[in-house]
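hi!! sorry for the late reply, been swamped w classes. u asked for the two structures so here they r. pasted raw, havent cleaned anything up. first the sequence of the first protein and right below it the tokens
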Amino acid sequence: MQVDRLMDMIVNSLYSNREVFLRELISNASDALDKARFVGLTKPEIMKGKEQLEIRVSCDKDAKTITIE
């Protein structure tokens, strides 16, 4: 899968540690949600139907994968 290969390249070239990459990914997602909430204060139409912004992290031990949504 191309996305898997690209992510592997990003992780290996920019981050020496997978945990650091994962932490940065979640941190960036959190920052984006904070920005969306802030913009939503002045432009509530942007947030209509999206009142509960969240980052979901799940894992599949058998497949050895982590999914971030």
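now the second protein. again sequence first, tokens right under
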Amino acid sequence: SSGINAEYGDGKEDKDIRMVHRNEHGKMVHTLEKRSHYSVVEQPGAKPLGMFVPEQCTGKGIAVGLLDYLTSRNIATDDLICLGGDNTNANTGYMGGAIREFELMVGRPLQRGM
């Protein structure tokens, strides 16, 4: 498994086709739902790693989504020294932001990049 030195993420709320089903007339219909998508970028080098959709758009939900995303791709967090994103409370909140929640999950403090 390979590791990365820094990871930066950014969220964007989009409308997704969430569910396709048949209505009372037998016609296939879909439901649009707003969901937040988070891009994951490795630094240095600005290498795009992909994106994930957290179950919840809270600091903890984003942190869990990120850790699950990295783990599912065999990307080790042992060498990770910096976690960054935009300056929203969901990312940077000192008690419940994604960076703090991620630090608690990996068991060590990280540098913060904004």
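hope this helps!! also noticed smth abt the second:
Strands lie at 2-3, 6-22, 28-43, 47-52, 75-76, 82-84, 111-113.
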